[in-house]
Amino acid sequence: MNTENIRKIAIYGKGGIGKSTTTSNLSAALAKKGYRVMQIGCDPKADSTKNLMGGKRIPTVLEQIKAKGEELTLNDIVFEGFGGVLCVESGGPTPGVGCAGRGIISAFEKLEELEAFETYKPDIVIYDVLGDVVCGGFAMPIRGGYAKDVYVVSSGEMMSLYAANNIASAIRNFGKRGYARLRGLVLNAKNIENEREIVEKAVQEIGTQIVCYVPRSSEIQEAENQGGTVFEFLTDSVMQGVYNELADRILADA
Question: What is the pTM of this model?
Fold first, then answer.
């Protein structure tokens, strides 16, 4: 299989900004549209895919490498979730021991070695990446030629926008070598005063655009409390329309 035909996207954001919630709902929206999606969590917390897996945590690539060694197979690290989304968690080391970024590198290397993309043939791969520190393994999706398009999830809060600016700077540096390009910012609203205006000003300074506005909604929490996305647990949800709009925008960016 020519993996160049796979659409590879990285979604970055500061910890706690709602990046994994956004990514999981995006994956669900794309799956509902008929795409075969693989979501790869690149955060030591390993909770990126739990809303696609009925609220349950899946074993991480690092855990399984440690437990199974050379006996490791794709069935040990790739799990099918809601809508057929293929779920992978890279995992991380024991807190205080080792480098979390190195965990991402090891996971990527193992997925390549086991020919995950050739085996599952996804249409779209989404890397869900912690964006507080864009170094080492956390930069792999944009530095290693894995993701072609990057989206940043941010609110109007200062630290969230600070992280978004750092991510944009990293992409500009790597972009000179023909790697990933920043497509825009997903505004995940926190309902702070003048939030939209603050973020619009920030994206002008960063040199990007707002690709989607995600309003703060109790529907998201309601679905997560049941262990899933708004597509799985809610009917006639306004938020389904929002995530469908985000999916359409990303598909149009191809």
Answer: 0.94
